[in-house]
Specification:
four-stranded antiparallel β-sheet, alpha+beta, 3 domains, single chain, five-stranded mixed β-sheet
Length: 250
């Protein structure tokens, strides 16, 4: 192959730059707009940290040019109201709850002891006043699960709507009684930022015999995901109370 032809081929594959309407394009292959790099978001893990950065005007954020967007129960963005000339809308501050924290394993059966530990560590213990119409069933579920009989003494009767299980008698602990389980219970797991009220939602409570007759407990979500909307609104309301001049969308 002649040297002139080789030089021509190399020249065609060498990237060049063209400026069109003030924007730089690469001409290698299809004409491609070269966009400027976007700064990495500042990440925080609490709503309080997010509020402190906003009040400190980190990265020049201000309510006239930026807004707060509650993306989900676990994440919040602070970004510009309008995209730039390159159709970019960088996220300046990103708030997200810490991953890897202990959470209850919903929608499956777990061993009795693991269920009790999870209920005591992954749920809010609400102490409502006596005249308050709100309530939850955390104490009821813990007490019921703790009293379940083990091994060959455990009996489970299920009619598809409710269950009867053998449990320790409160009058005579050495004896057992047949206990009717509530088919649905109200609980408030930790599922969103700790600064806000954790939504209470319904769960289907079920018990089954596991290996070697040991009880296994299942909590199955029964609110169709409505708790997520409640959590998002709780986060939005908290931010609105703390940052009154800001646009907050959820």
């Amino acid at each position: 192959m002649e040297a002139a032809v080789i030089d021509k081929i190399v020249g065609l594959t060498r990237p060049t730059r063209e400026v069109i309407d003030g924007k730089v394009y690469s001409t290698i292959g299809a004409l491609t707009l070269i966009k400027p790099p976007v700064a990495e978001s500042i990440q925080v893990y609490t709503l309080t940290g997010l509020k402190d950065l906003i009040e400190a005007s980190a990265e020049g954020v201000d309510p006239a040019q930026h807004l707060i967007h509650v993306i989900s129960p676990t994440s919040v963005y602070v970004h510009s109201k309008a995209s730039n000339d390159y159709s970019q809308r960088p996220v300046i501050i990103y708030g997200e709850i810490l991953t890897g924290d202990r959470s209850y394993p919903f929608n499956k059966f777990v061993e009795q002891e693991s269920a009790i530990i999870g209920l005591r560590s992954c749920f809010v213990k609400n102490d409502y006043p006596e005249d308050d119409t709100r309530h939850d069933d955390l104490d009821y579920v813990i007490k019921t699960i703790t009293n379940l009989q083990i091994q060959d003494k455990l009996q489970v009767e299920d009619n598809g709507i409710a269950q009867n299980v053998t449990a320790k008698s409160e009058v005579a602990p050495a004896m057992t009684v047949l206990t009717n389980l509530k088919p649905r219970v109200k609980l408030a797991p930790y599922r969103t930022f700790r600064e806000v009220e954790q939504p209470t939602s319904e769960f289907v409570l079920r018990v089954q015999k596991g290996q070697k007759g040991m009880p296994e407990v299942g909590l199955f979500e029964a609110d169709g995901g409505a708790w997520k909307m409640d959590a998002i609104h709780n986060v939005r309301d908290w931010l609105k109370a703390q940052l009154k001049d800001w646009t907050i969308v959820a």
